[in-house]
Design goal:
Elements: E1 6-10, H1 17-24, E2 43-46, H2 60-65, H3 78-90, H4 106-119, E3 124-128, H5 136-150, E4 155-159, H6 163-169, E5 172-177, E6 180-185
Parallel strand pairs: 1-4, 1-5, 2-3, 3-4
Antiparallel strand pairs: 5-6
Length: 198
């Protein structure tokens, strides 16, 4: 995977997509083979969803700010405030930054998760089926945002079942199957998987 790639990982349930993500994040040790990562590689992670109810106390701004470097100061430095404001603007969250995250829509929550991941300026962004719970318009809105960062050099690894999104945004694909895989430029991604669309 090269810098600026938008690598789409597809495959049926149970073939190892989640295991791959957990291994890249360092939560699992590979059972076979090795995973080679650039030393010091900064990884951002956007999940499919988080269990946040309407009573979740943090505003969108405060939730995103949780990913700032930890220190003992109870306030943000000028540079941290500027970086936070920049990310909120780039992810179109500024107008609703004071809204409690628990009261945000599904699309707004996903943009907040994206903003939080981007705040630390990662080199690789992992999106683990991050569009699965969104309607079609929200899927494209979220990935349009991601695509802008990718075009500036961010590498993206996107786990999805949605072949339309894969074709639209991907530059390369990795198709995981039982005991084998296929990879290549997105232009070579078949229209349908084994057994039809997932």
């Amino acid at each position: 995977m090269n810098q600026g790639d938008f690598l789409v990982v597809i495959g049926e349930n149970g073939v190892g997509k989640t295991t791959l993500v957990r291994s890249l994040l360092g939560f699992l040790e590979p059972q076979g083979g090795t995973i080679s990562k650039q030393p010091g590689l900064k990884i951002g992670y956007v999940p499919q969803f988080r269990n946040l109810d309407a009573e979740y106390p943090l505003s969108i701004r405060d939730f995103v700010a949780l990913n700032l470097p930890k220190n003992i100061r109870p306030w943000l430095s000028r540079g941290e405030r500027q970086r936070l404001q920049q990310i909120l603007a780039e992810t179109k969250l500024s107008p609703i930054a004071n809204r409690p995250l628990g009261l945000a829509s599904g699309g707004e929550k996903q943009r907040a998760y994206l903003a939080q991941a981007l705040l630390a300026d990662p080199q690789l962004l992992i999106m683990d089926e991050s569009t699965a719970s969104l309607d079609n318009d929200m899927k494209y809105e979220l990935l349009d945002l991601v695509s802008r960062f990718q075009q500036q050099g961010l590498s993206v690894l996107f786990i999805t079942h949605d072949w339309e999104l894969a074709k639209h945004y991907g530059t390369r694909y990795l198709h995981l199957m039982t005991r084998r895989y296929e990879q290549g430029p997105i232009s070579e991604l078949p229209e349908v998987s084994e057994g039809g669309h997932e």
